[in-house]
C-alpha cells in the first residue's frame, strides 16, 4: 500500500508568524555583503584561488543568463511516486548562480533571472508530496531556496508583493514539510528515533534559513535550541557521537556509509555558517564539537595524490532505525568528495586561528569546489549542497595564531588524558603541570607533534592542574584544566537539622541544589532517625542540580534503599540524564523482571550496563546498593558484595549536559496508568568523585 504524505499551502501545523525580538542581519545566511565585497575585490585583483574559482563558476550549466524555469504544482520525492524534485533542484541552482552573479558583477539581468525563477515557483507550487523522503526535500531545498531569497531581498526589481509571496511559500510549504521530521521526535514516548543525523540537520538548517528570511526570531531560536539539545539525532552531542583522543569526533553516520556521513558534516557546516552570520556561534559550541566531527570525517575520506586512507578509531554504534542497528566498523564508500570543506577550513583556520589540518587538506585538494548538480552525473545527491566554496568562502590566511585552547583533563583510572585544540602556526607543544592553580608549573613533556593533540599523564594520586604551550613562542598558555585522582565526596543528600517538609541539603563542598516535588519529604532512615528521602510512588521525586555529573569520569554512587511493597516495572531509583536518549540510571525492575543499571547516549536500544536476576530483594527491608566506574570498568555492589561487572565507555561526562537529574523518577514519558515512580525510602545517597573499592564500599554500610 502506498503511503502518501502531503505538505502544502493548506497545512499550517508549525508555522510562526511572529515579530522578531531583535533585528536580523540582512543578507545574513550563507553570505553577507562583506563576503561579496571581499570576493569582488579578489577577482578584480586577479588573486588566487578566487580568480580560478570565478572562472569555474561561470562554466556551470546553471550560470546561463537564458535559463528557463520549470515550476511544478506538486513536488514529489520518494520511491513509488512520480519523482520530479530534480526539476526544483535545478531551478534553485540556476536562481542561486544568477543571484551570485548579480552580487559580484552588478549586472541586473542576472538579478531579474533569479527573481523570475523564484516568482515562477511561488506562483505555482502548492505542495510537496511523497513518502518520508519529502521531508528531505523540504529541508535541503528549503534551505537552498531561502538562501537565494535572502541574497535577492535587497534587489529593487523584486516587488514587495512577490517577495512576500515567496516568503509565504517558504514558511507554509517548505518549512512545514521539513520541520515535521523534528516534531515527530519529541522526547515524550520513548527512545525510538528514526532515520539518521542528516535528516535532522537538514531541517535545522532550513529552519534557520527560513527564520532569517521571514524575520521570524521564534523559528530561528527553536532551530538553535534543537541543535544545542541532547535529544535529536541532529543535535551536536548526538551527531558528533563520541570524542576519541585528540578531539576526533566519531559521527553518528560514520558506520553507515561515507556518502551520508559527509552529507551530515556538510549540512552541519551550513547551519553553523548561517548562525554565525547572525552572531550565534554554533561552530564553537561545546568546545568546537563540530570541528571534531569534521576533522574525523575528513581524515576518514581523504585520499589524494596516492596518500591512501588514514586509520581512525571507531567504537560500536547502536541506534533504532525501524529495525535495530548496530554498527561495529566504519561504513563503506571512503573517498566521498563533496564540496563542503572550504567553508569549514576557512572558518576555523582563517577566522579563528584554530588548526584544522584534515579539513584544510581536503579544501585545498578540491580547489576549486564545484557547484550544485555538477557531480555524480547530476543525480539527486549532487544537489545536496549549493557548492562553489572556494569562490565564496575562501578568506585571507590569518596573520597570527599561536596559543592552544579548549584543554580538557579527563581521569581514566590512574591516568589523566589531556586533549586540546592547537593554533594554526604551532610546530609542537609542551605540557606543564602544577599541584596548585596559582603555583609554579613544571614542564613534564616537550616537543609533542601536531598530528594528534593528546597526551596521557600518570601523576599519582592528588589534584593536578595542567596547561599547554606552543614551543618557541611568546604566546600565552592554554586555559588551565584540573584533574583529581583518588576518591572524595562529591554529593551527599542529607536532611540534617531540617524538619518534615523542609528541603534537604548537600553536605559536600559543592553544595548542589536539591528540590522536592509533589509532597516528597523526610522519612525514617536505616538508623531510626529522620534522615531518609520518603517517596510514595505517586509522582513524588527529588530533583538534583543540572549537569550534576557532567564533569565526572571515574565515579561512585552509593545509597541505602527500602521498598514499600513490590514496585511497578520500570520504576527507577535514580536517573540522571537529558530525556530518554541520554542517561545513567538504575531500574528496580525492567520489563523482564530484572533489576538493571545502565547508561546510554543513544536511547534505550544502545544501553550498556549490568542486569541482575529478578527484582531487588528490598521489599519492606533495607539494602545497600553501590555502583563504581574506574576507567572502563563498572562494578555494582549489593550489600557490599559484587553483584555484577561490565565494560562501559560512556563515562558521565560523555552523557553531556543533563537537566533531568532525578531520584525516584524516570526519563521516560510517564503515562497516568503506569506511574513508574520509586515507592519507599532512600537514605545516605552519596556520589563520589573517583571509584571506591570494595573495602570503602563496606565502610559506608
TrEMBL record:
SUPFAM superfamilies: Chondroitin AC/alginate lyase, Concanavalin A-like lectins/glucanases
Superkingdom of source: Eukaryota
Keywords (A to Z) from UniProt: Lyase, Signal
TM region(s), chain numbering: none
GO terms assigned for molecular function: lyase activity
Residues spanning the signal sequence: 1-20
Protein name in the entry: Alginate lyase domain-containing protein
Amino acid at each position: 500500500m502506498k503511503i502518501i504524505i502531503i505538505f502544502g499551502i493548506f497545512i499550517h501545523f508549525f508555522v510562526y508568524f511572529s515579530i522578531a525580538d531583535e533585528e536580523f542581519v540582512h543578507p545574513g545566511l550563507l553570505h553577507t555583503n562583506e563576503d561579496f565585497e571581499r570576493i569582488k575585490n579578489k577577482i578584480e585583483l586577479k588573486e588566487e584561488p578566487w580568480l580560478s574559482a570565478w572562472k569555474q563558476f561561470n562554466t556551470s550549466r546553471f550560470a546561463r543568463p537564458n535559463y528557463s524555469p520549470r515550476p511544478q504544482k506538486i513536488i514529489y520525492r520518494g520511491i513509488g511516486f512520480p519523482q520530479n524534485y530534480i526539476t526544483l533542484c535545478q531551478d534553485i541552482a540556476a536562481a542561486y548562480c544568477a543571484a551570485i552573479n548579480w552580487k559580484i558583477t552588478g549586472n541586473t539581468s542576472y538579478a531579474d533571472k533569479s527573481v523570475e525563477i523564484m516568482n515562477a515557483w511561488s506562483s505555482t507550487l502548492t505542495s510537496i508530496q511523497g513518502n518520508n523522503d519529502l521531508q528531505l526535500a523540504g529541508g535541503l531545498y528549503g534551505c537552498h531556496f531561502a538562501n537565494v531569497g535572502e541574497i535577492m531581498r535587497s534587489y529593487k526589481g523584486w516587488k514587495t508583493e512577490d517577495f512576500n509571496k515567496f516568503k509565504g511559500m517558504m514558511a507554509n510549504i517548505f518549512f512545514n514539510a521539513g520541520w515535521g521530521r523534528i516534531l515527530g521526535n519529541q522526547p515524550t514516548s520513548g527512545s525510538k528515533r528514526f532515520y539518521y543525523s542528516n535528516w535532522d540537520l537538514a531541517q535545522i538548517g532550513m529552519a534557520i534559513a527560513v527564520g532569517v528570511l521571514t524575520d521570524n526570531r521564534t523559528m530561528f531560536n527553536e532551530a538553535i535550541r534543537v541543535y544545542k539539545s541532547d535529544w535529536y539525532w541532529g543535535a551536536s552531542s548526538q551527531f558528533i557521537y563520541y570524542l576519541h583522543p585528540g578531539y576526533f569526533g566519531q559521527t553518528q553516520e560514520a558506520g553507515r556509509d561515507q556518502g551520508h556521513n559527509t552529507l551530515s558534516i556538510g549540512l552541519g557546516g551550513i547551519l553553523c555558517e548561517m548562525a554565525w552570520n547572525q552572531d550565534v556561534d554554533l561552530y564553537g559550541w561545546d568546545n568546537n564539537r563540530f570541528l571534531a566531527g569534521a576533522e574525523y570525517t575528513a581524515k576518514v575520506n581523504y585520499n589524494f595524490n596516492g596518500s591512501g586512507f588514514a586509520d581512525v578509531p571507531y567504537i560500536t554504534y547502536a541506534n533504532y532505525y525501524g529495525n535495530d542497528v548496530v554498527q561495529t566498523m566504519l561504513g563503506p564508500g571512503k573517498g566521498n568528495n563533496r564540496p563542503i570543506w572550504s567553508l569549514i577550513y576557512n572558518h576555523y583556520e582563517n577566522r579563528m586561528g584554530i588548526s584544522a589540518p584534515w579539513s584544510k587538506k581536503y579544501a585545498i585538494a578540491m580547489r576549486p569546489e564545484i557547484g550544485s548538480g555538477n557531480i555524480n552525473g547530476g543525480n539527486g545527491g549532487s544537489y545536496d549542497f549549493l557548492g562553489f566554496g572556494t569562490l565564496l568562502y575562501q578568506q585571507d590566511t590569518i596573520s597570527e595564531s599561536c596559543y592552544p585552547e579548549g584543554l580538557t583533563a579527563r581521569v581514566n583510572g590512574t591516568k589523566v588524558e589531556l586533549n586540546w585544540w592547537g593554533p594554526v602556526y604551532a610546530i609542537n607543544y609542551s605540557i606543564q603541570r602544577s599541584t596548585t592553580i596559582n603555583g609554579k608549573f613544571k614542564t613534564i613533556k616537550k616537543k609533542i607533534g601536531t598530528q594528534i593533540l593528546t597526551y596521557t599523564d600518570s601523576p599519582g594520586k592528588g589534584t593536578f592542574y595542567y596547561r599547554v604551550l606552543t614551543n618557541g613562542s611568546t604566546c600565552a598558555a592554554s586555559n588551565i584544566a584540573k584533574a583529581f585522582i583518588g576518591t572524595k565526596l562529591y554529593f551527599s543528600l542529607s536532611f540534617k537539622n531540617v524538619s518534615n517538609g523542609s528541603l534537604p541539603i548537600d553536605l559536600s563542598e559543592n553544595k548542589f541544589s536539591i528540590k522536592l516535588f509533589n509532597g516528597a519529604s523526610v522519612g525514617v532512615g536505616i538508623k531510626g532517625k529522620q534522615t531518609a528521602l520518603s517517596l510514595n510512588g505517586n509522582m513524588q521525586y527529588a530533583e538534583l542540580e543540572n549537569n550534576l555529573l557532567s564533569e565526572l569520569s571515574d565515579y561512585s554512587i552509593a545509597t541505602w534503599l527500602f521498598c514499600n511493597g513490590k514496585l511497578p516495572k520500570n520504576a527507577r531509583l535514580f536517573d540522571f540524564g537529558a530525556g530518554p536518549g541520554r542517561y545513567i540510571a538504575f531500574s528496580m525492575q525492567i520489563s523482564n523482571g530484572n533489576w538493571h543499571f545502565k547508561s546510554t547516549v543513544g536511547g534505550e536500544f544502545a544501553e550498556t550496563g549490568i542486569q541482575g536476576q529478578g527484582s531487588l530483594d528490598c521489599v519492606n527491608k533495607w539494602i545497600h546498593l553501590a555502583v563504581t566506574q574506574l576507567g572502563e570498568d563498572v562494578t555494582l555492589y549489593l550489600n557490599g558484595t559484587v553483584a555484577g561487572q561490565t565494560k562501559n565507555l560512556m563515562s558521565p561526562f560523555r552523557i553531556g549536559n543533563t537537566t533531568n537529574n532525578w531520584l525516584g523518577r524516570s526519563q521516560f514519558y510517564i503515562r497516568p496508568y503506569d506511574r513508574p515512580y520509586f515507592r519507599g525510602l532512600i537514605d545516605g545517597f552519596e556520589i563520589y568523585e573517583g571509584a571506591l573499592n570494595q573495602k570503602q564500599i563496606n565502610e559506608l554500610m
